[in-house]
Amino acid sequence: MARIARLFQGVVVAALFAVVVARQFSLPSTIPSLTSCLTEPVFYSCENTTTISDACCSPTPGGLVLQTQFWDTYTGLEKQGQLLPRNSWTIHGLWPDFCDGSFTQYCDLSRQYDPTPSPNTTNGLPNGTVVPSYSGPGVDTFILEFGRIDLLDYMNKYWISQGSPNKDFWAHEFSKHATCTSTFDVACYENYQAHEDVVNFFDTTVRAFQMFPTFDMLAAAGIVPSNSTTYTLSQIQTAIKIQTGATPFVGCGGNGTVLNEMWYFAHVLGTEQYGHFKPVESTTDSTCKNSGIRYLERTPTSEREVRVFP
Ligand SMILES: *[C@@H]1O[C@H](CO)[C@@H](O)[C@H](O)[C@H]1NC(C)=O
Ligand SMILES: *[C@@H]1O[C@H](CO)[C@@H](O)[C@H](O)[C@H]1NC(C)=O
Ligand SMILES: *[C@@H]1O[C@H](CO)[C@@H](O)[C@H](O)[C@H]1NC(C)=O
Ligand SMILES: *[C@@H]1O[C@H](CO)[C@@H](O)[C@H](O)[C@H]1NC(C)=O
Ligand SMILES: *[C@@H]1O[C@H](CO)[C@@H](O)[C@H](O)[C@H]1NC(C)=O
Protein backbone atom coordinates (compact mmCIF):
# COMPACT_ATOMS: atom_id res chain seq x y z
CA MET A 1 0.00 0.00 0.00
CA ALA A 2 2.72 2.45 1.03
CA ARG A 3 4.52 1.69 -2.19
CA ILE A 4 1.45 2.47 -4.25
CA ALA A 5 0.85 5.68 -2.28
CA ARG A 6 4.40 6.80 -2.88
CA LEU A 7 3.98 5.97 -6.54
CA PHE A 8 0.90 8.18 -6.75
CA GLN A 9 2.64 10.97 -4.87
CA GLY A 10 5.38 10.84 -7.48
CA VAL A 11 2.82 10.90 -10.25
CA VAL A 12 1.08 13.96 -8.82
CA VAL A 13 4.38 15.82 -8.57
CA ALA A 14 5.29 14.76 -12.11
CA ALA A 15 1.87 15.82 -13.38
CA LEU A 16 2.13 19.26 -11.76
CA PHE A 17 5.60 19.66 -13.21
CA ALA A 18 4.29 18.59 -16.60
CA VAL A 19 1.50 21.17 -16.48
CA VAL A 20 3.93 23.95 -15.63
CA VAL A 21 6.37 22.88 -18.34
CA ALA A 22 3.61 22.33 -20.89
CA ARG A 23 2.37 25.91 -20.38
CA GLN A 24 5.80 27.37 -20.96
CA PHE A 25 7.04 25.38 -23.94
CA SER A 26 5.81 23.96 -27.16
CA LEU A 27 7.84 21.41 -29.03
CA PRO A 28 9.10 21.89 -32.58
CA SER A 29 7.17 20.12 -35.32
CA THR A 30 8.35 16.90 -36.98
CA ILE A 31 5.35 16.65 -39.31
CA PRO A 32 5.95 16.48 -43.08
CA SER A 33 4.08 18.92 -45.30
CA LEU A 34 1.51 16.93 -47.26
CA THR A 35 -0.65 19.74 -48.62
CA SER A 36 0.35 18.83 -52.18
CA CYS A 37 -1.18 15.38 -51.57
CA LEU A 38 -4.65 16.87 -51.17
CA THR A 39 -5.21 16.82 -54.93
CA GLU A 40 -3.56 13.41 -55.57
CA PRO A 41 -5.52 10.19 -56.14
CA VAL A 42 -5.93 7.93 -53.10
CA PHE A 43 -4.77 4.29 -53.31
CA TYR A 44 -2.87 1.60 -51.46
CA SER A 45 0.85 1.40 -52.21
CA CYS A 46 1.70 -1.37 -54.69
CA GLU A 47 -1.93 -1.24 -55.86
CA ASN A 48 -1.83 2.08 -57.74
CA THR A 49 -2.91 1.86 -61.35
CA THR A 50 -1.40 5.23 -62.23
CA THR A 51 2.08 6.58 -61.67
CA ILE A 52 2.68 8.11 -58.24
CA SER A 53 3.69 11.67 -59.01
CA ASP A 54 4.51 12.87 -55.48
CA ALA A 55 6.56 10.34 -53.53
CA CYS A 56 5.91 12.21 -50.26
CA CYS A 57 2.25 11.12 -50.46
CA SER A 58 2.79 7.35 -50.69
CA PRO A 59 5.82 5.12 -50.10
CA THR A 60 7.29 4.44 -53.53
CA PRO A 61 8.98 2.42 -54.88
CA GLY A 62 9.12 0.81 -51.42
CA GLY A 63 5.36 0.28 -51.15
CA LEU A 64 5.44 -3.15 -49.51
CA VAL A 65 5.91 -2.05 -45.92
CA LEU A 66 7.14 -4.45 -43.24
CA GLN A 67 6.72 -3.87 -39.52
CA THR A 68 9.24 -6.26 -38.04
CA GLN A 69 9.48 -7.55 -34.46
CA PHE A 70 11.73 -9.72 -32.32
CA TRP A 71 11.22 -12.20 -29.53
CA ASP A 72 14.57 -12.27 -27.73
CA THR A 73 15.22 -13.98 -24.42
CA TYR A 74 18.15 -11.79 -23.40
CA THR A 75 19.87 -8.56 -24.53
CA GLY A 76 23.50 -9.15 -23.55
CA LEU A 77 23.51 -5.68 -21.97
CA GLU A 78 21.51 -6.50 -18.86
CA LYS A 79 24.25 -5.08 -16.64
CA GLN A 80 23.76 -1.69 -18.29
CA GLY A 81 20.02 -1.92 -17.59
CA GLN A 82 19.05 -2.81 -21.15
CA LEU A 83 16.11 -5.12 -20.45
CA LEU A 84 13.20 -6.55 -22.41
CA PRO A 85 9.58 -5.49 -21.83
CA ARG A 86 7.59 -8.16 -19.97
CA ASN A 87 4.62 -9.50 -21.94
CA SER A 88 5.64 -7.83 -25.17
CA TRP A 89 7.64 -8.50 -28.28
CA THR A 90 10.09 -5.76 -29.28
CA ILE A 91 10.45 -3.50 -32.28
CA HIS A 92 12.90 -4.40 -35.00
CA GLY A 93 11.95 -1.77 -37.57
CA LEU A 94 9.78 -0.53 -40.44
CA TRP A 95 11.09 -1.53 -43.85
CA PRO A 96 10.24 -0.39 -47.38
CA ASP A 97 10.38 -3.41 -49.71
CA PHE A 98 9.65 -3.08 -53.41
CA CYS A 99 6.27 -4.58 -54.31
CA ASP A 100 7.94 -7.91 -55.21
CA GLY A 101 9.75 -8.21 -51.86
CA SER A 102 13.20 -7.09 -53.03
CA PHE A 103 14.71 -4.01 -51.41
CA THR A 104 17.48 -1.40 -51.27
CA GLN A 105 19.39 -0.09 -48.24
CA TYR A 106 21.41 2.94 -47.11
CA CYS A 107 19.84 5.11 -49.83
CA ASP A 108 21.05 8.51 -48.57
CA LEU A 109 24.57 8.55 -47.15
CA SER A 110 24.12 12.19 -46.09
CA ARG A 111 21.83 10.76 -43.38
CA GLN A 112 24.18 7.95 -42.31
CA TYR A 113 24.06 7.73 -38.47
CA ASP A 114 24.79 3.98 -38.11
CA PRO A 115 28.02 3.40 -36.11
CA THR A 116 28.42 -0.11 -37.57
CA PRO A 117 26.85 -0.31 -41.03
CA SER A 118 25.67 -3.79 -41.89
CA PRO A 119 26.24 -4.60 -44.65
CA ASN A 120 29.17 -2.22 -45.08
CA THR A 121 28.40 -1.46 -48.75
CA THR A 122 25.10 -0.34 -50.26
CA ASN A 123 24.62 -3.64 -52.11
CA GLY A 124 26.42 -5.88 -49.63
CA LEU A 125 29.01 -6.74 -52.31
CA PRO A 126 32.64 -5.60 -52.65
CA ASN A 127 31.67 -3.49 -55.69
CA GLY A 128 28.95 -1.53 -53.84
CA THR A 129 29.34 1.99 -52.47
CA VAL A 130 31.06 1.89 -49.07
CA VAL A 131 28.79 2.94 -46.19
CA PRO A 132 31.07 4.92 -43.86
CA SER A 133 30.69 4.24 -40.17
CA TYR A 134 29.34 7.10 -38.06
CA SER A 135 30.85 8.40 -34.85
CA GLY A 136 28.82 11.58 -34.18
CA PRO A 137 26.19 12.16 -31.48
CA GLY A 138 23.72 9.28 -30.97
CA VAL A 139 20.25 9.49 -32.45
CA ASP A 140 18.91 9.61 -28.89
CA THR A 141 20.24 13.19 -28.80
CA PHE A 142 18.23 13.95 -31.97
CA ILE A 143 15.07 12.89 -30.14
CA LEU A 144 15.97 15.15 -27.21
CA GLU A 145 16.68 18.07 -29.60
CA PHE A 146 12.96 17.91 -30.35
CA GLY A 147 12.07 17.54 -26.67
CA ARG A 148 10.53 14.11 -27.18
CA ILE A 149 11.26 12.56 -23.80
CA ASP A 150 8.02 10.60 -24.16
CA LEU A 151 9.19 8.99 -27.42
CA LEU A 152 12.66 8.24 -26.05
CA ASP A 153 11.09 6.63 -22.99
CA TYR A 154 8.84 4.42 -25.14
CA MET A 155 11.74 3.41 -27.39
CA ASN A 156 13.90 2.51 -24.40
CA LYS A 157 11.10 0.23 -23.25
CA TYR A 158 10.08 -1.44 -26.51
CA TRP A 159 12.82 -0.96 -29.15
CA ILE A 160 15.51 -3.14 -27.68
CA SER A 161 18.75 -4.30 -29.23
CA GLN A 162 20.59 -7.54 -28.59
CA GLY A 163 24.34 -7.11 -28.25
CA SER A 164 24.53 -3.36 -28.89
CA PRO A 165 23.19 -0.21 -27.24
CA ASN A 166 19.59 0.55 -28.23
CA LYS A 167 20.50 3.92 -29.75
CA ASP A 168 22.95 2.30 -32.17
CA PHE A 169 20.24 -0.09 -33.32
CA TRP A 170 17.74 2.77 -33.84
CA ALA A 171 20.36 4.61 -35.93
CA HIS A 172 20.94 1.46 -37.99
CA GLU A 173 17.24 1.08 -38.68
CA PHE A 174 16.87 4.71 -39.73
CA SER A 175 19.89 4.91 -42.01
CA LYS A 176 19.51 1.48 -43.57
CA HIS A 177 15.75 1.57 -44.16
CA ALA A 178 14.08 4.96 -43.62
CA THR A 179 16.46 6.67 -46.05
CA CYS A 180 14.94 4.34 -48.70
CA THR A 181 11.37 5.26 -47.71
CA SER A 182 10.13 8.13 -49.86
CA THR A 183 7.74 9.61 -47.29
CA PHE A 184 10.71 10.42 -45.02
CA ASP A 185 12.67 12.23 -47.73
CA VAL A 186 14.07 15.56 -46.54
CA ALA A 187 12.12 17.24 -49.35
CA CYS A 188 8.83 16.22 -47.68
CA TYR A 189 9.42 18.62 -44.77
CA GLU A 190 8.79 22.36 -45.09
CA ASN A 191 11.64 24.43 -43.62
CA TYR A 192 13.42 21.17 -42.86
CA GLN A 193 15.06 21.07 -39.43
CA ALA A 194 17.98 18.63 -39.23
CA HIS A 195 16.86 15.26 -37.80
CA GLU A 196 13.12 15.95 -37.84
CA ASP A 197 12.78 13.09 -40.35
CA VAL A 198 14.54 10.80 -37.85
CA VAL A 199 12.12 11.67 -35.06
CA ASN A 200 9.16 11.41 -37.46
CA PHE A 201 10.36 7.92 -38.50
CA PHE A 202 10.69 6.78 -34.88
CA ASP A 203 7.16 8.03 -34.10
CA THR A 204 5.89 6.24 -37.20
CA THR A 205 7.58 2.97 -36.33
CA VAL A 206 6.12 3.05 -32.81
CA ARG A 207 2.64 3.64 -34.28
CA ALA A 208 3.04 0.72 -36.70
CA PHE A 209 4.36 -1.56 -33.92
CA GLN A 210 1.26 -0.81 -31.85
CA MET A 211 -0.95 -2.02 -34.73
CA PHE A 212 0.49 -5.53 -34.33
CA PRO A 213 0.55 -6.62 -30.66
CA THR A 214 2.15 -9.99 -31.27
CA PHE A 215 2.41 -11.10 -27.65
CA ASP A 216 -1.28 -10.46 -27.01
CA MET A 217 -2.49 -11.93 -30.31
CA LEU A 218 -0.58 -15.15 -29.64
CA ALA A 219 -1.58 -15.29 -25.97
CA ALA A 220 -5.23 -14.81 -26.92
CA ALA A 221 -4.91 -17.99 -29.00
CA GLY A 222 -3.30 -19.88 -26.11
CA ILE A 223 0.22 -19.47 -27.43
CA VAL A 224 2.39 -18.28 -24.56
CA PRO A 225 6.10 -18.56 -23.82
CA SER A 226 6.88 -21.94 -22.34
CA ASN A 227 10.09 -23.88 -21.83
CA SER A 228 8.17 -27.14 -21.75
CA THR A 229 5.67 -26.90 -24.63
CA THR A 230 6.07 -26.67 -28.39
CA TYR A 231 3.77 -25.20 -31.04
CA THR A 232 3.17 -25.82 -34.73
CA LEU A 233 3.85 -23.21 -37.40
CA SER A 234 0.23 -23.22 -38.52
CA GLN A 235 -0.96 -22.59 -34.94
CA ILE A 236 1.23 -19.48 -34.84
CA GLN A 237 0.32 -18.27 -38.34
CA THR A 238 -3.40 -18.81 -37.78
CA ALA A 239 -3.38 -16.97 -34.44
CA ILE A 240 -2.09 -13.89 -36.26
CA LYS A 241 -4.07 -14.29 -39.47
CA ILE A 242 -7.43 -14.35 -37.67
CA GLN A 243 -6.61 -10.87 -36.32
CA THR A 244 -4.79 -9.22 -39.24
CA GLY A 245 -6.19 -11.05 -42.27
CA ALA A 246 -2.77 -12.04 -43.57
CA THR A 247 0.02 -14.50 -42.86
CA PRO A 248 3.12 -12.78 -41.46
CA PHE A 249 6.67 -14.01 -41.90
CA VAL A 250 7.45 -16.21 -38.90
CA GLY A 251 11.16 -16.49 -38.14
CA CYS A 252 12.96 -19.14 -36.12
CA GLY A 253 16.53 -19.71 -34.99
CA GLY A 254 18.05 -22.94 -33.71
CA ASN A 255 17.55 -24.73 -37.04
CA GLY A 256 13.90 -23.70 -37.29
CA THR A 257 12.94 -24.69 -33.75
CA VAL A 258 13.07 -21.46 -31.71
CA LEU A 259 10.56 -18.70 -32.52
CA ASN A 260 12.30 -15.31 -32.63
CA GLU A 261 10.85 -13.02 -35.33
CA MET A 262 7.62 -11.82 -36.89
CA TRP A 263 7.33 -9.56 -39.95
CA TYR A 264 3.98 -7.97 -40.80
CA PHE A 265 3.66 -7.08 -44.50
CA ALA A 266 1.28 -4.30 -45.53
CA HIS A 267 0.20 -2.02 -48.33
CA VAL A 268 -0.25 1.52 -47.09
CA LEU A 269 -2.91 4.02 -48.07
CA GLY A 270 -1.45 7.50 -47.77
CA THR A 271 1.78 7.78 -45.82
CA GLU A 272 3.44 5.40 -43.38
CA GLN A 273 3.27 8.27 -40.92
CA TYR A 274 -0.51 8.67 -40.77
CA GLY A 275 -2.08 6.37 -43.35
CA HIS A 276 -3.87 3.05 -43.22
CA PHE A 277 -1.93 -0.21 -43.18
CA LYS A 278 -3.63 -3.13 -44.95
CA PRO A 279 -1.91 -6.41 -44.05
CA VAL A 280 -0.95 -8.59 -47.02
CA GLU A 281 0.60 -12.04 -47.26
CA SER A 282 4.30 -12.43 -46.50
CA THR A 283 6.55 -12.69 -49.54
CA THR A 284 9.16 -14.55 -47.45
CA ASP A 285 8.86 -18.22 -46.49
CA SER A 286 8.95 -19.06 -42.80
CA THR A 287 12.27 -20.24 -41.44
CA CYS A 288 10.51 -22.38 -38.83
CA LYS A 289 9.87 -26.10 -38.98
CA ASN A 290 6.24 -27.13 -39.32
CA SER A 291 6.08 -28.43 -35.77
CA GLY A 292 8.08 -28.65 -32.57
CA ILE A 293 8.55 -24.87 -32.37
CA ARG A 294 9.67 -23.54 -29.02
CA TYR A 295 8.50 -20.09 -27.84
CA LEU A 296 10.99 -19.65 -25.04
CA GLU A 297 10.37 -18.06 -21.68
CA ARG A 298 12.84 -15.29 -21.08
CA THR A 299 15.51 -15.33 -18.48
CA PRO A 300 13.73 -13.55 -15.58
CA THR A 301 16.63 -11.13 -15.04
CA SER A 302 16.51 -10.09 -18.72
CA GLU A 303 13.06 -8.53 -18.56
CA ARG A 304 11.12 -5.95 -16.56
CA GLU A 305 7.60 -4.61 -16.18
CA VAL A 306 7.38 -1.47 -18.33
CA ARG A 307 3.69 -0.70 -18.03
CA VAL A 308 4.17 1.53 -15.02
CA PHE A 309 4.26 5.27 -14.71
CA PRO A 310 7.53 6.75 -15.96
C1 LIG B 1 2.78 2.79 -58.83
O1 LIG B 1 3.54 3.95 -59.09
C2 LIG B 1 4.94 3.73 -59.09
C3 LIG B 1 5.65 5.07 -59.15
O2 LIG B 1 5.16 5.85 -60.16
C4 LIG B 1 5.29 2.80 -60.24
O3 LIG B 1 6.67 2.57 -60.25
C5 LIG B 1 4.57 1.49 -60.01
O4 LIG B 1 4.79 0.63 -61.11
C6 LIG B 1 3.08 1.69 -59.85
N1 LIG B 1 2.54 0.42 -59.36
C7 LIG B 1 1.51 -0.20 -59.93
C8 LIG B 1 1.10 -1.51 -59.31
O5 LIG B 1 0.89 0.27 -60.86
C1 LIG C 1 33.22 -5.08 -45.47
O1 LIG C 1 33.13 -6.25 -44.68
C2 LIG C 1 33.79 -7.35 -45.24
C3 LIG C 1 33.43 -8.58 -44.43
O2 LIG C 1 33.56 -8.32 -43.07
C4 LIG C 1 35.29 -7.07 -45.29
O3 LIG C 1 35.98 -8.15 -45.85
C5 LIG C 1 35.50 -5.83 -46.13
O4 LIG C 1 36.88 -5.46 -46.10
C6 LIG C 1 34.67 -4.66 -45.65
N1 LIG C 1 34.73 -3.60 -46.62
C7 LIG C 1 34.89 -2.34 -46.29
C8 LIG C 1 34.91 -1.36 -47.42
O5 LIG C 1 35.02 -1.97 -45.14
C1 LIG D 1 28.71 -6.11 -58.63
O1 LIG D 1 29.03 -7.49 -58.55
C2 LIG D 1 27.94 -8.37 -58.79
C3 LIG D 1 28.38 -9.78 -58.48
O2 LIG D 1 29.71 -9.96 -58.69
C4 LIG D 1 27.45 -8.18 -60.19
O3 LIG D 1 26.35 -9.04 -60.45
C5 LIG D 1 27.01 -6.74 -60.38
O4 LIG D 1 26.61 -6.50 -61.72
C6 LIG D 1 28.13 -5.77 -60.01
N1 LIG D 1 27.58 -4.42 -59.97
C7 LIG D 1 28.23 -3.38 -60.46
C8 LIG D 1 27.52 -2.05 -60.35
O5 LIG D 1 29.31 -3.47 -60.97
C1 LIG E 1 21.47 -27.53 -37.14
O1 LIG E 1 21.45 -28.79 -37.80
C2 LIG E 1 22.71 -29.16 -38.32
C3 LIG E 1 22.54 -30.44 -39.15
O2 LIG E 1 21.60 -31.29 -38.55
C4 LIG E 1 23.70 -29.32 -37.17
O3 LIG E 1 24.97 -29.68 -37.67
C5 LIG E 1 23.78 -28.01 -36.41
O4 LIG E 1 24.60 -28.13 -35.27
C6 LIG E 1 22.41 -27.54 -35.98
N1 LIG E 1 22.52 -26.20 -35.42
C7 LIG E 1 21.85 -25.82 -34.32
C8 LIG E 1 22.02 -24.38 -33.91
O5 LIG E 1 21.11 -26.54 -33.70
C1 LIG F 1 13.92 -20.87 -20.91
O1 LIG F 1 14.89 -21.47 -21.72
C2 LIG F 1 15.84 -20.56 -22.26
C3 LIG F 1 16.72 -21.35 -23.24
O2 LIG F 1 17.30 -22.43 -22.61
C4 LIG F 1 16.63 -19.93 -21.14
O3 LIG F 1 17.57 -19.01 -21.65
C5 LIG F 1 15.67 -19.21 -20.22
O4 LIG F 1 16.36 -18.69 -19.12
C6 LIG F 1 14.59 -20.17 -19.76
N1 LIG F 1 13.62 -19.39 -18.99
C7 LIG F 1 13.15 -19.79 -17.82
C8 LIG F 1 12.16 -18.89 -17.15
O5 LIG F 1 13.47 -20.83 -17.34
From TrEMBL:
Gene Ontology terms describing biological process: RNA catabolic process
Supply the enzyme class, top level: lyase
The record's active-site residues are 92, 173, 177
Q: Name one GO cellular component term.
A: extracellular region
Identify a single GO molecular function assigned to this protein.
ribonuclease T2 activity
Matching entries from PROSITE patterns are given as: RNASE_T2_1, RNASE_T2_2
Signal sequence residues:
1-22
EC number from the UniProt entry: 4.6.1.19
> Which controlled-vocabulary keywords does the entry list?
Disulfide bond, Signal
Q: Provide an example Pfam family for this protein.
A: Ribonuclease_T2
Q: Which family does it belong to?
A: Belongs to the RNase T2 family.
**What is the protein's given name?**
ribonuclease T2
* Source species of the chain: Sanghuangporus baumii (Phellinus baumii)
